[in-house]
Amino acid sequence: MEKNISNIRLKSLREDRDLRQVDVANATGIDQRTLSNYETGKTYPDAPSIIRLAEYFGVSCDYLLGVTDTDLNTPKRIIEELEDVEERLEHIRRALNKM
Fold it and tell me: Which pLDDT score, from 0 to 100, does residue 1 have?
């Protein structure tokens, strides 16, 4: 049982949404036992399964596979992330100005 970033991310995405493996299985058409094997590292998803899982969770395939730490897959998510970064930068600027 090898833990790698993709099975950790897959399990985290599912648990963060309070979903059971059977819920994801029903929504994606991937067998629940197969999902369990993905999460434990017993087997690894093929390309079509990666795509289905990424689309279901609303993340990029790169994020799911651990290629990137940014889970942005739509222009809306990119804009939201940019707005968050701008807000954090403004907070830092204000803090620096008080020094």
Answer: 46
